[in-house]
Amino acid sequence: MGINFTNFFTSKSKNKRMMEFQDLDHIDGVSISTVSANLYKGPRDDLVMFYFRDGANHASVYTQSKIISENIKWNLKQKVKKITSLVVNTRNANCFTGKQGYKSLEKIAQSVSEKLTLKQKDDEEYPKKIKPKDIIFGCTGTIGEVFPEEKILNKITDLVNKIKYTQNKYIWMKAALGIMTTDTQPKMAMEECLIGNSKVKIFGIAKGSGMIQPNMATTLGYIFTDADISNDILKKLLKKNISNTFNAISCDSDTSTNDMITIFSTAKKKTSFN
Q: How many Å is the Cα radius of gyration of the chain?
């Protein structure tokens, strides 16, 4: 995977030294891929895939706005126990795009599921058929513009082909950069802790700069753990902690249509906490 830091080095950040960010490394069950779908005028990563080859337990909290983006409408309809992939695009929020925006997600989910099914056949001893309902989306960027369906569809093969099963700090950095819009620097965090006798990892990336008021506005946050935690407990943990974290920050009193915080458990570290 080539390291494209264009959107990092051309940002307004005064904190550009890689060493100043935490050393997020490999976490079992999570794979990452980033590409440029040319959604911006300049070259930068703007399309990110998180792939869970064995599936991942999950829970999400979404915006409290009555007007929501098409990707959140899609996500709310997917009721599967395990998610196979999260696909995030920047530059376009897929909001006020109507039927076109939602149908675009249907087509992209179909393409992603087909390509990941082929990857399962190539890589797994017991391959699974991936379905469109196993895919969820994050969208962020400008509201009210036609969703760039063709640009994204044209990059799905490349996105899947670039999946790396072993992660490192640079790849996590690429993912954090790839979901940025007006942010001046990527947002990454990690922690290791014990659940019983099991040492588990908790990694997270987020984007959000302007338009932040209590209730998550314009925030996308993705949390990953290898701890074996069920969907029900993930949901309880997320709801319990959202009030004094993502719902306790303010910037310029705007709310948003696209906010989402999702936590994924790959369940690779067995614990009694499930």
A: 17
Residue 251: predicted pLDDT: 64
- Reported as a single tens digit per residue, the pLDDT across 213-261 is 445 556 899 999 999 999 999 999 999 998 888 777 766 666 678 989 9
Q: 2: helix, coil or strand?
A: coil
> In this predicted model, what pLDDT tens digit does every residue of 34-48 receive, in sequence order?
999 999 988 899 999
Average predicted confidence (pLDDT) for the chain: 89
**21-269, superfamily in CATH?**
L-amino peptidase D-ALA esterase/amidase (3.60.70.12)
Q: How far is CA 210 from CA 43, 78, 154, 181, 247, in A?
A: 23, 29, 31, 10, 15
Q: Using CA atoms, how far apart are residues 122 and 118, in angstroms rounded to an integer?
A: 6
In whole angstroms, give the CA distance from residue 187 to residue 146. Answer: 28
DSSP, res 155: T
The catalytically annotated residue of 84, 97, 140, 218 is 218
Question: What's the pLDDT tens digit per position in 131-150?
Answer: 999 999 999 999 999 999 99
Cα gap 259→142, rounded to integer Å: 13
Q: In the annotation, is 218 catalytic?
A: yes
Q: What are the domain boundaries of the chain?
A: 21-269
Q: Which residues contact 228 (CB under 8 A, 6 or more apart)?
A: 265, 267, 268, 269, 270, 271, 273, 274
Who has greater pLDDT, 182 or 14?
A: 182
Model confidence band, residue 79 (pLDDT cutoffs 50, 70, 90): very high
**Interacting residues of 67 by C-beta distance below 8 A, sequence separation 6+:** 95, 257
Pairing relationship of beta strands 260-269 and 47-62 according to DSSP bridges:
antiparallel
